[in-house]
Design goal:
Number of helices: 1
Radius of gyration: 17 Å
Strand order of the largest sheet: 1-2-6-10-8-7
Order of helices and strands: EEEEEEHEEEE
Structural class: mainly beta
Length: 117
């Protein structure tokens, strides 16, 4: 999904400050389907759940970075992310991967339920 940089973001009660030059990676949760053909020519589909993902860079103080690192405890948290074109994403997920901090920029990845409102 594309929507341009985030306009507004909040996760786990913590306001996030989107970087204007960061193009977020957004994948909505859903199902991944495989279609197969049986020996007698019939087709069937089987699916598996696929988690959603939001990955982006945010401006942050070192204190905010430490709060985000503390949130890497595996607990699911709610959040909202608004893209520049006005799409609102509702998130219920966990911080996955490393939370990196470099010169006031935090790189963050959240996986779980990501739904377009």
């Amino acid at each position: 999904m594309r929507g341009g940089p985030f306009f507004d973001a909040k996760f786990g009660g913590l306001p996030l400050h989107p970087k204007g030059d960061s193009e977020p990676e957004i994948n909505l949760d859903g199902r991944e389907w495989d279609v197969s053909v049986t020996g007698d020519g019939e087709t069937f589909a089987s699916g598996k759940a696929v988690p959603g993902k939001i990955k982006s860079d945010f401006n942050a103080s070192f204190e905010e970075y430490k709060k985000l690192v503390a949130m890497r405890d595996g607990k699911s948290r709610a959040g909202t992310f608004t893209t520049a074109n006005g799409d609102v994403l509702m998130v219920n997920g966990v911080i996955s991967g490393e939370v990196t901090y470099n010169n006031g920029t935090v790189s963050l990845e959240i996986t779980g339920k990501v739904r377009l409102q």
